[in-house]
Amino acid sequence: YQVFENVAEKYDVMNDSMSLGIHRVWKDILVHKMNPSPGTLLVDVAGGTGDIAFRFLNYVRSVRERQLQQKLRHHQNLSWQEISKSYQEEKSNPLGDSQVVVCDINKEMLKAGKQKAQHLGYSEGLSWVLGNAEELPFDDDKFDVYTIAFGIRNVTRIDLALQEAYRVLKPGGRFLCLEFSHVSNPLLSRLYDLYSFQVIPVLGEVIAGDWKSYQYLVESIRRFPPQEELKAMIEDAGFLKVDYQNLNSGIVAIHSGFKL
Amino acid sequence: MPSHSYTGQDGQESEDYESEEQLQHRILTAALEFVPEHGWTAEAIAEGAKTLGLSAAAAGMFHSDGSELILHFVSQCNSKLSDLLEEEQKQVQLGKAEKKPTNQFLRDAVEARLRMVIPYIEKWPQAVSILLLPHNIPSSLNLLTSMIDDIWHYAGDQSTDFNWYTRRAVLTGIYNTTELVMMQDTSPDFEDTWRFLENRVADAMNMSSAAQQVTLRARYPPVPTPVQIRQ
Asked: Does CATH place domain A1-181+224-259 in 3.40.50.150?
């Protein structure tokens, strides 16, 4: 907990420097894989500063725009009334009722996220809730999609978090997890280790004035179960059609499962 | 009924494997209703999932280009065709109907099969192009050839002299070209298409008898008459 209190403010900067900005791409890929349709209800757990939430909102907004455009194109003989109604629809409901709830255990992270949202102009369809991944403050069968990006490795009881994820998802709902994972390629693995243990804590000291927290982060990554093992854990929680996709040869992996 | 498996994903070893696939089939069937409006897309699948009481997110189980939906549809149509032909055959066996001559049989079978596409005809060109994508070709080709083989099987053909491969090739050609014609046909009830089909089948039958003649001539060449040498 304390690690993240220290880290909260400089979280984004550290992410950029540690992953050389690639974390943005990973997060983009996650939302792209999700392919959310307007009207989707998303819960982003350990979502901290809102990266996934903002991408989700951008995505559904553009899908919604495209949908409305297509509708206009299909109906060639619209009256002026109908056309203006359609534009009004676009204005009044640009997200198509999509919503994202960002849930984090850490007040500071949520605060930082809210500030960032304000700064970037996100207001609609977004809410911030304090909560513990092992015991979510939500009802059963509530969400269409559950995401946890770079958060699950910090959960003490991963099995409990997975069970909670299963509980709060609607039938047909999807679980998506983006996390550091196991690199099988030996050459890449050595370079990666070198980078992780030599460079990252130094960056931590220089940028955030905190060597220890970043040492902890790197070690927690090493301790985290590899792809197949995580897949089995997800299946144990009841998810079906569980699969994973390696990004950058396994430095990061996206696991996906469905509640069927 | 032969099961057509066309998903590339390797199944997991859980007891629910069978019902997982069944559920996927149910979602795809439900999605067909939304194809005329949304096309062969993830949106149609999402709408289908919703009618079954599932979250739209379930559409994430499938490829985003709609491949599985199209293959599912084709597979369903092929099964329907088999059932139809099976029923017809039964009627003939029971003496309640006449056995059709081969050309009539082929025409009716192809027409019946193509008519199944009519409710989706506007979005069908899109489907055809997706089926031609490299990752779909093995499955779509498989479905096509088994359908063609099926038709020949029920045709119970004695009249043509084609061998098995030629039959396949000939009927596949007839089917594919007729399908293309149908997609651009604007005549009432596609009568131009059926006329095109009639002609192609007739051509094929003529080809067969022409082939027979060529074979006969090769076996029994006309005896050369002695040439009178003029001196």
From this structure: yes
